[in-house]
Amino acid sequence: MNTKTLLTTAVAATVLMGPALAMAEYRIGITQNNVGVDSYQTTYERAFIEAADANSDVRAVVLDAGGDVARQIAQVDDLIQQNVDAIIIWPTNGEAVIPAVRRAQNAGIPVVVTNSNIAEQGFDFIRSFSGPDNVTQGRRSAEIMCDKFKDMGIEDEAQVVHITGQPGYTTAIERAGGFEERLPEVCPNVEVVDTQPGDWNREKAQQVMEAFLTQYDDIDGVYSGDDNMGVGALNAARAADRDGIIFVGATNFAVGYDAMAAGEYWGSIYQSPVDDARAALQTAIDVLDGEDVPFLNYFDTPKITQDNMDQFTKPVF
Amino acid sequence: MANIASKQVLTVLGKQGILIAFVLFMVIFSLANSNFLSLDNLQSVIRSSAILGVMALGVTFVVISGNLDLSVGSMMSFSTIVVLDLHDKLGPNLAIPTMYLMTLGLGGFIGYLVGYLRLNSLIVTLGMLSAIHGLTLTYSGGQNMDIADKSNTWFGFFGRGEIFGLPVPIILFILLAAFLGVLLAKTPFGRKVYAVGGNPTAAAFSGIPRARTVFTCYLISAFCVATAGLIQASRSMGSQNTVGQGLELEVLAAVILGGASLLGGSGTIFKTVIGILILGFIQNGLLLMGWPFYVQFVITWIIIILAVWLDISVKRGKLWVSN
Amino acid sequence: MTQQSPALRLEGIVKTFPGVRALDNVSLDVLPGEVHALMGENGAGKSTLMKVLGGIYQPDEGLIYVGDTPVVMSNPLDSKAKGIVFIHQELSLAEELSVAENVYLGELPTLSFGRVDWKTLYEKTDAILSKLKVGFNARTLVGDLSIANQQMVEIARALTVDAKAVIFDEPTASLTDAEKLVLFEVIADLKSQGVGIVYISHRMEEIFKMTDRVSVLRDGQYQGSLLTADTNEEQITQMMIGRKLDLSRAPITHELGDIALEVRNLSCGSSYQNINFQVRSGEVLGFYGLVGAGRTEIAETLFGLRQPSAGTILLDGEQMHINSPSAAIKAGISLVPEDRKTQGLVLGMNCRDNMTLPQVDDMSAGPFVSDGAEVAVFDLYRDRLDIRTPGWRQTVGNLSGGNQQKIVIGKWLSMHPKVLIVDEPTRGIDVGSKSAIHKLIRELAASGYAVIVISSEMPEVLHVSDRIVAMFSGEIIRTFTSEDVTEDNLIQAISGITPK
Amino acid sequence: MISEFIKRNLSTSAIWLFIIFELLFFSIAGHYLSFSDGAFMDLNNMLLLLNQSAPIGIIAVGMTLIMVNGNIDLSVGAVFAIAGIVMLDSMTWPVFAGLGDWVIVVSWTLALLAGALLGALNGLIVWKTGVDAFIVTLGSMLGYRGLVFMFNGENPTSHLNWTLIDFAEAQFLGFNTATWFLAASVLVIWLVTRYTVHGRNAYAIGNNRNAAVNAGIRVGPHMVINFVIIGFLAALSSVVFYSGSGSVNPNDGQLYELWVITAVVLGGTKLAGGSGSVIGTLGGVIAIQLLRKGLGYIGADTSTVNLVIGLILIVVLFIDRQLNVKGAQELRV
User: Which of B291, C196, D273, D315 could join C30 in a cystine, given CB atoms 3.0 to 4.6 angstroms apart?
Assistant: First the structure.
């Protein structure tokens, strides 16, 4: 009886999966940074799987490094070992994965980097980067903030605090760099009085903001590496009854969008994980199809503020 | 003569060392930054320590009973995510008790493994740290949980509300600390916790049920974690799956700083509260002085070791171990 | 006395601790080939003296000579290297290691690069083991050995060096009679090799059987030495406590009551089989037998710590199911366990809390423990048992052994049990406290308790019991009444020798 | 005695039985669930498995010694990060500019030295203050992490040296560099535990500290040596790993202590000390890596991996308990 059931299952599986396997043209492996740590990454994973499922030519092996660079390198090796057709990598560390990426290239497997780019030394070993331009995002956030200060007429005296993302994380570094580079260009008299990391974590950002509020009597603007932290900072300001602070973030989250609608949060950068995931998959497919893919394949991440938010749908994450 | 005097100094330091350190830090920080002792700041520190503090109260019971609980961080994430999710599905009236029941279920499971099956608490809670994180991710599908309509619920009361100008988290922390402090110091149950942690064999020979006592300690810990999750959820009205990650070690650090021995049988709620406040004020003080957050790591390291060292050198009557 | 120089000589040893003069000008000499008993109450300074010899403490004044050479010992290994070897009362073995490694613990033979020389190690160990005539070899894991065999490993350790003096500290505590004989042979063997032996024991029979001379310490002071052949038990006791000790049997001065506890056909796995006995209120029933005969296991079963595989327990004629200590307590059975430090007390707790621990649930006023009620209980039993402590806040771990034992007894008396079981009531307690506890047990019986006393010391059982149950290898061999008991037939019964 | 023998061997071989079970399970499940062409039990895949086990494995070898000795070290993750930073950073120091690729040797030495020093600091504190190792290393886990950040703020420390990477990727007799280092660590520490006085004394101390003290074994120096060894091995794991990756994030190595302890406990080492072997630990490390690899192979997501690994740890503990359970008539305290 048991053997029979097993046999039936086996036959059924072969019948069902055999043809599917045979038809699949491309097997694409992806190793992500840290799914489940925030909604962006979770939505990204879901969108990626959906997009892969929708495409009958693609079979996806979806892995998650859990934020651990050693595990990610192991996963790249696993994918090489499984001889996939292409590898998409969301680097946990933009430099540490370069040798692993080189191994993939040496094995004849094209690599596409997604979301957060690897360092320049590795550019020789990848086919394309697909994702947002985080430096530009940082610059745009600076512009949003500066424009608002100009509207308010405080561009010569305003004081800003800066809550960055996870230390060491490329996205965090690039956004912070873009912001701090651009702000003096557009608003030379605005002073960034303090910078502390909020680790992409709303609660941590809230604590950091609480300390800022105690420490500085005059805070006119807060720039956070993403909306998740921005909302944490907003909560702190609300609890301390400090009104009139301009909050600008990046990666517009649903909570940030709502806060904007409520008039409490000024602006952000609209970046859709669904676009991000689809772009990555499409880039990989294009590479495999032999099409000409731009090396830096940025998808657009526009400014969103209270003024123009009606042009955007509310983010799903 | 000098020897006796130094011994007395050691004894005083050992008994009141934590308090002395506490006062010392307060003085240094308030000299360094005039805002430090402002009422606003004090309130803000206690409020932000409240979540960690509430968890530490429960862990104090577990540690005194001679065990460890490394799962409180991921359990707190679980409570937070669950109550936020259920808030929109069931409404706050049902969501809160349901979340408490589910968290107590997890605590009960750990208590069963450690109490009744007598499995090693370090490994069990280490395993549960990972397992509960997986459970949370499965529950939420990895998505952040947010209350859809934040302005139209009384749920924010636990994290944002105030009674007579005092923030509710602080009130909850104080009430729970008072209640658990009395439970530990003044009731038969508290006595049993000390006995089971101090000498489990002698406790068994005195007719004290070790299994049930340990089980109850984990239930208390889970109750505290659920409360912490409630405050957290209510305060931010939305959360990531990893909100409590790493808190287990901070909590443990506070409990140890308060002088509870990991061998069990010693420690008090009051001392744990002091431990929590020290950690909170160090964090806040350094932030106010504009020092990077990681300096706090190094200082916490030094303080923990000094505190425990002082404590045990008083017991053995000398500073250094020779053998 | 002979002219030969002593194997070990102490001269005017003084050791003070803050507030205490633990050793006050102690002098002692142990001749080669002599078995020298060292006696004294707990707290008399024996263990301090041993620690001085072991290099754990440095004496404030005085000199130690091994042979003719004055020596200074800096640690246990050092003193071993100088020819002084200890055999400790408490087993001090690493169970996961082999016998050989334990025998040479701390001084494994080495090759280059710190490697262990296993071949030499096993050879040397097996050579020693063959002298001891034991049934295991050098490669056996110590954890697989019985307690008695583990004790033999401990003894084997002493034979690893060319010892000038060997110090035995209560070596027979956990040995069977057969094993004791082997031990005595070993001691005789060492003696014939000209080794000086210090023999510390509370057991008078062994002292008189084994030793050549007896030295006594009291309150850190040397009281003198006597040739064993020229002295007797009373004289030694008197030297130890400074007064006479009454070891005669107390007459029964009260009527016995009804049967309080009856046990029928009780068995528990391999621990004991088919046990039957009764105890009346007002009666003291002694259980005498060797360690491992099943006495403690019966007590633990009665107290709900073990589950019997068969048999019934009746309390006041009613059948009881005792499956936990709390059930036993509720039924009216109390157990003063054999090891007060691990089983009897929470050493880090204060005196009062320890004493009221089993009844803390009943001490409450509302939801809280009532301070007043607890202190009242403590004060009552402190006075009744004459417990010497600065106050109830004193941590129990800081009390002397006798006072600790009284706290445990007080803890169980305050439960007002019908049946009080006392397992080894005076183990490791000085002579003065001992007699106080014996007196107490008699008084308890007189006031109507049914008391079971388990003891490995014959004088003790004879002294306190109305009837004596003799056990051997898990079975009751015979129950003696005060009329028909003699030392001889008691010893025969517990050694498995069928009476003629 | 015979049943004792069986039990003893059963509990040490249990981990290998579990590994065989995992292999069979993932091979069969993978047949249905995986999109990969290659079989799971492919030789190259198994060689890769060993290679991937190295970072956790090398540290776990040291942790075995620490835990056998009756201590624990929670700071290994931070030491891992520090050693990586020392290695990569020192390669760019101007002092060593003239050395060419010989700087690799110097940097490795410096990193290993740093690891050993940090270990020694832990050990000395444990020894001299008498504070429990759990507390000391819980503290230094924070403190050392603080040092990591002080090095280079919140930025990664990076240096790509292709000679070094080629070395890390090299194969010798079919095995990767990392595998060789893992094998060497296991072998050396196994020899230490079996054949040296230090190793045997470490067991004795963990088994019965009082006995060891009474026998004149100096407990403190042995503990310090073991902490030096684990610091060294954490650094070795780090230099082997970062030679092949070239960049350290300040958060790298976080939670490694938990994985390492999990592996050691799965491998049969007792938390109380005195018992355990590096061979068992190797099994524990392989079992965990196999589980991660296999779950990825059959397409399980992060939440499942967390759930499964956590529960397996508890189940193993439970089985161990059952194997050592006392009879119904035994004393119940």
Answer: C196
